[in-house]
Amino acid sequence: MGMDGQPVLDTLINPEQPIPPATTAVHSITDETVRSAPTFADAWPSICAVLNGVENLIVYNAGYDMAIIRRLAKELAHSDSTMPICPSRSADDAMHIAHAFMGGSGKYPRLNEACAAVGIQQDASSRQRAMGDCRATRQLLIELASK
Questions:
Q1: Residue 90 domain-assigned?
Q2: How far apart are CA 8 and CA 122, in angstroms?
Q3: pTM to 2 decimal places
Q4: Is residue 6 part of a domain?
Q5: 37 domain residue, yes or no
Q6: pLDDT per residue as tens, the chain (147 positions)
Q7: What's the CA gap between 3 and 66, in Å, rounded?
């Protein structure tokens, strides 16, 4: 999502393996949901273009998401030398910003907890979905910046 709030990339990814029930319980994404979605290999050129095209990358729980992207990109590069290579990107972590705002002690807040702390109501159907989390993170950062 861009700074203007408009999506720059919004797609599910077909993991090419069955989605575990525990994952479906968190994300409400099923095998049927992703059946016609692109694979990571298919989506990688678009993902790479986004990563290369943004000046500032801010992610909630960046360590988790960026580690997955790096692992998948590395596996892809080993299996297909024609795939574009993205430079190593770092991302600022909005979770650390929220944690500091909430006093900086104890465990790091989940996105929905950080949003609730500043009065943002997250739609339950968009929680744990990339675009919903992007919107919530953007709202959270705007709210925190106004404090």
A1: yes
A2: 21
A3: 0.81
A4: no
A5: yes
A6: 877 888 888 899 999 999 999 989 888 899 999 999 999 999 999 988 888 888 888 999 988 888 888 888 888 887 776 666 676 677 899 999 999 998 888 899 999 999 999 999 877 666 667 888 899 999 999 999 987
A7: 19
Give how many domains the chain has, as a whole number. 1
Buried residues in 104-123 as b, exposed as e (16+ CB within 10 A): eeeeebebbebbebbebebe
What CATH number is attached to the domain comprising 36? 3.30.420.10
Q: Is the dihedral of CA 14, 88, 51, 123 positive or negative?
A: positive
Cα atoms found within 13 Å of the Cα of residue 43, Cβ hemisphere only:
19
Structure tokens at 42: 């298919």
Count CB neighbours of 27 within 10 A: 15
Domain extent, residue 39, equals: 21-145
Q: Does residue 4 fall inside a structural domain?
A: no
Place of tokens 């273009």: 49
